[in-house]
Amino acid sequence: MTLTTIEASGSRYALRRARRDDVAAILALLADDVLRREESRSDDAGALRAFDVIDADAAQLLVVVEGPGGAVVGTMQLTLIPGLSRGGATRMQIEAVRVDESLRGGGIGAAMIEWAIAHARERGARLVQLTSDARREAAHRFYERLGFSPSHVGFKLAL
User: Fold this and answer.
1) pLDDT tens for each residue of the chain, 159 residues long
2) Helix pair 137-145, 108-122: axis angle to 10 deg
3) How many CA atoms lie within 13 A of 129 on its CB side?
4) Helices first, then strands: H and E counts in the chain
5) Which strands, in side-by-side order, build the sheet including 60-66?
6) Which residues pair with 16 in a beta bridge?
7) Distance CA 78, CA 60 (A)
8) Considering Cα of 63, then 37, then 132, then 159, what sign does the dihedral take?
9) Cα torsion at 155, 78, 48, 45 (round to 10°)?
């Protein structure tokens, strides 16, 4: 089911909810990152289990961008997070934003984020937030151009 259609660099792209058979393409996009840190394989049972959990959760939306030929050329995961702070505000967390390397710089990523912000508003979110690895400097410039500000310091603990 197409959520919307975006236009970038003279081509039309469909944003749609990811399907289980998109997992291999999503993992390939995640692995094709400046950090090349994702090591999941398309047959990774853990990734498929994670997809099933994400897909069943109404607070989650895993999106893919389908190119004119039907190939998956982008992805992002959106999560609604209700909270007690800010007067009980709901936040939209944007994660794992990727666009095929050959298409970067053509406006697909900006259109994805703009749609995600509109989707967050429709779902009642009062804040959109995202995290980005400290080493992804190009991504930071991209998010800042879209109006995001580096307002917090994030911490992680591997388990």
Assistant:
1) 789 999 998 999 999 999 999 999 999 999 887 676 555 455 578 899 999 999 999 999 999 999 989 999 999 999 999 999 999 999 999 999 999 999 999 999 999 999 999 999 999 999 999 998 888 898 999 999 999 999 988 888 889
2) 60
3) 15
4) 5, 6
5) 2-8, 11-17, 60-66, 72-82, 90-99, 125-130
6) 2, 64
7) 6
8) positive
9) -10
- At 63 the three-state DSSP class reads strand
**pTM for the whole structure:** 0.91
* Crossing angle of the two packed helices 45-56 and 23-31, in degrees rounded to 10: 110
In the structure encoding, which two tokens stand for residue 133, read together?
A: 């690895």
Q: Residues with Cβ < 8 Å from 51, sequence gap 6 or more? A: 18, 20, 23, 62
Q: Please report which helix (H) or strand (E) contains residue 65, including its range.
A: strand 60-66
